[in-house]
Every structure is written in structure tokens, then in C-alpha cells.
Amino acid sequence: IAIIANDRVIDWLLPFFESYVATSASIPLYLIPYDDNLERTRKAAEAYGVEIVSLDSSELDALARRLYPLNPGHRRRLRKLLALALPLDEVIYLDVDTIMLQDFTKVLGHIESGKAEFIVSARCHDYIYNSRHKDYDFLRDALLFNDGFFVTSRHVLSLQNFYDVIAKDERIFHTVRQRGGLFAQPLTNFVVHRSGLKIATLKEIIPTASGESYY
């Protein structure tokens, strides 16, 4: 499991840690620093046995500056994508404004080429594209998702895929992306859709799971 956090979200992080320990402690948890504001976060991570990872974010940060030159305070949100750089065969990414109520080991082991390459919990029709996305065949009927939860493999989707897709189709991305304080979510959707990955919902993988954003 991978998360991104700093001291500004400590009031979300602590209950997340509590719920993780109570339900899913058998799964290693990796914390990606949002920035260097980590004094309380480091203490909490140590107390809960969570590893704070040190990954080179320079290339990803450069992409964020390129895509969002006017938003220096928020473009670090793309650092959640460093979950794809962890040396794991599968990774569950979770936003920390989450409470885990079940054992998440049941979520692992379902990534399969051509069938379930990117697993999401909830469809989301807002905060991703504007109406011009319908002008593009690969986006017109795409499953739009909330990127606060996803499961994938770095062997299926890597950071290099993000760099390659934007290098080729940056103009299209800026044409279709929804404006207004949105950063990682439009980009993650765009790269997954442009890469033609097979998206599966959590409910399709685990019949008793919910397909709602909040549950």
C-alpha cells in the first residue's frame, strides 16, 4: 500500500494509520513525502511501523512544472504517482482521507493483462475532462475514475508511460483536461485511457465491494 502525506494532513493520517493497523497490517505500507514538512509525520510513521520512502522525484516534478506552471503549491500532488516507482509487483494507492474497514489483502492478486490492468473503486464524471474529450475516440466512452484509490502493477503502468504519453499528446491533454485546481486526477485518467489499459472496478473484482466514492 502506498500513500502520500505530510504534517498538514496529520489529522487524516493518524486515523488512517489506526485503521491500517486494525485491518491490513500484514501488507507493507509505504509513505511518499508530499514535501519536507514531515516532523510529526516521521514520528507517527515510526510509531506505526510505516516506511517513509526516499525516491527521486526530479523527473516527475519537472513534468508537474511543465503541465502546471502557474500552480507551484499544488503540483506536488503528482508525487502520488511515485507509487509506481516502488519495487513492488502490485501496489494499492490510497489517499489518506480514508478509513480502512476491511483486510485489503483481498484486493491484491487480481492484476491480469488484458482483463484487469488498473483497478479503481469508483467511477467519477467530474473533475477530469471538459466536454471536448468527446472529440477523441479513445476518450469518448472511457470509464472515468476517482484516482484516490487504484491498484495496478509497475509492469503494466510505469512513470515512463506518463512521460511518453505527455511527450506525444500534451496538446490533447491540455485540450480535454478540466481546469480548476485539478492536477493528478485528469493526468492519471488521461494516461490510463491513452495507454489503452483495461480498467476494472473493485466491485467487478470483489462482488461484495461497493462502487461508491464514499462508503
Question: What is this structure, in a nutshell?
Answer:
With 215 residues, this protein is of the alpha/beta class. The chain has seven helices and seven strands; from the N terminus they run E-H-E-H-E-H-E-E-H-E-H-H-E-H.
Q: What form results from the Cα inertia axes?
A: globular
- Record the strand order, biggest sheet: 4-6-5-7
What is the radius of gyration computed over CA atoms, rounded to a whole number of angstroms?
17 Å
**Strand residue percentage:** 5-15%
Write the layout of secondary structure elements.
Blueprint: E1 2-5, H1 10-23, E2 30-33, H2 39-48, E3 51-52, H3 58-67, E4 91-94, E5 118-120, H4 137-140, E6 149-152, H5 159-176, H6 184-194, E7 199-201, H7 202-205
Parallel strand pairs: 1-2, 2-3, 5-7
Antiparallel strand pairs: 4-6, 5-6
Helix pairs in contact: 1-2, 5-6
